[in-house]
Amino acid sequence: MDDAPLILIVEDEKEIAKFIDLELRAEGYATEVAYDGVTGLSAFREKAPDLIVLDLMLPVLDGIEVAHRIRKTSNVPIVILTAKDRVDEKVEGLDAGADDYLVKPFSIEELLARIRAHLRRVTPSVTGEVRVADLVMNLDGREAFRDGRRIELSAKEFELLETFARSPGKVFSRFDIEEKVWPEYTGGSNVVDVYVGYLRRKLEAEGERRLIHTVRGVGYVLRDE
Ligand code: CA
Questions:
Q1: Upstream peptide bond of 124 is cis (omega within 30 degrees of 0)
Q2: Distance CA 151, CA 140 (A)
Q3: How far apart are CA 82 and CA 57, in angstroms?
Q4: pLDDT at 5
Q5: Which pTM does this prediction carry?
């Protein structure tokens, strides 16, 4: 399968790396495995993978630094693997540019589901339209609809929703969102939570199901669950 998506696995625990590798191959993906950060980075440069599964606790060069360096040149989806109860690490990883995270031990089904979601991440079409489930955003006309119902949004609300809708399934930390949508703020405000509240009220005004979900201790994600 020449056109199978290539997934780079960067994980120093060989048992885990081997397990993920076997499962991904069984699903029809092409894979490349690296056991430390430096090797992972050069594999990224040489192979241009379609997605990266990146452990954070790595020898030589840690995962946060690897994510940072990859993000300087690429938007490739990065799913990080973190140790249990290391909330700071998760947030740091997301702020470094990772798209999503899984806490060890994770189920392989969960990893496969996240990989599928990130590989089909939408990019705006030529008409400037973004669709996620029944949400449609017309980026040129600055209009949003849910199941055909027009949703009135302020400029900031639109910008926030657009940030989420351009990367469905991507987990955003509060810091990440604030930097993008409210660069004039210095951080530590509750503006993100307040505006997510506004958006939810408008998006769910007719009892529609929730699209913007809270990721405890981290931030928010837009996905159809
Ligand atoms: Ca590790």
A1: no
A2: 15
A3: 8
A4: 93
A5: 0.75
